[in-house]
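Annex B. Sample input.
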Amino acid sequence: MISVTGLSKYYGDHLVLDNINMTVVKGEVFGIVGHSGAGKSTLLRCLNGLESYQDGSVRIAGREVRDLDRPGLLDLRRGMGMIFQTFNLMNRKDVFENVAFPLRVWKTPARDIEPRVMELLDLVGLTDKRNARVQNLSGGQKQRVGIARALALGPEILLCDEATSALDPKTTTSILELLENINQRLNITMIVVTHQMEVVKRLCHRMLLLDGGVSQVLGVTEELFLLPPENFRKLIEEEYTLIPGGVNVRLMFPREISQDAVITRMARELDIDFSIVGGKLERYLDDVFGFLIINIPVASLPAVRDYLSRIDMHYQILDGSGATERQHERAPGAAIMEGIRTRKSAIIRKGLGRE
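Annex B, continued. Sample output.
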């Protein structure tokens, strides 16, 4: 559906995107991730023709974006809905008119506008806000209006530019659930630009990590977080506040061992003391993993490593002596990785029209 090959973009003499390659299949949720200034939004704007590019190719549904004339670009953008960080709603209009705006611009017959708007307001859970002024809505409600407006013309692709960055964590979760529901119900392809790791884990099937306009990592989201390559580790570890000194170890608890008293038994058997740095549950699409970070004395690392390997426990060294220790980290079990590959294959089959 989307194919980017060797894409390079300059502002004057400044290279902002350098040889970007990626493909997105129909029905996939694809994440573009990185810090501010990484080139994420620029890449997004190259996809919908709002930015030109000097080298490479951007093909949407078989059409080269750079070669499109003005009518062609308008047709391309009609098939792409856009969700913004700052909502971009019209404060002087009520909810109904904000959603109806694209339909009126594209001269949709008047008799078709109200049914379509009400269908979309029902989808995003705002039928009771039809006549409300947008300035009286909460941030989450405003973003729901923005999502309904983006879907008004029935696009095949939905572009989300930091759609949850202005929202609190609880509201972010509700918006991600809504986007997931839309993806599943409508089989709509989504490109999600974000710097929030929780958004990527919760929503994206695959992801591209950009840094300084350069592609650093491209792959299946779960695989990258559970088996992070070296140039992805730093971004992951920024999520944690680690204890200086000792060795910080991140343990993963899949469902099949979530009820076992692994840590208590390890402390008794090895006769060691350790500190608990933090822990949380992380959702990766339709699966949930528990993570716990402990800090142990450096001298205890060999014994802890042997114990965790013996019970088939996945772990990562978040800091320490680097590659020498990292090579002994234990990967997730075969069943976990097989589940990831199965979900990836299902998305690709659906995109190729085999499901």
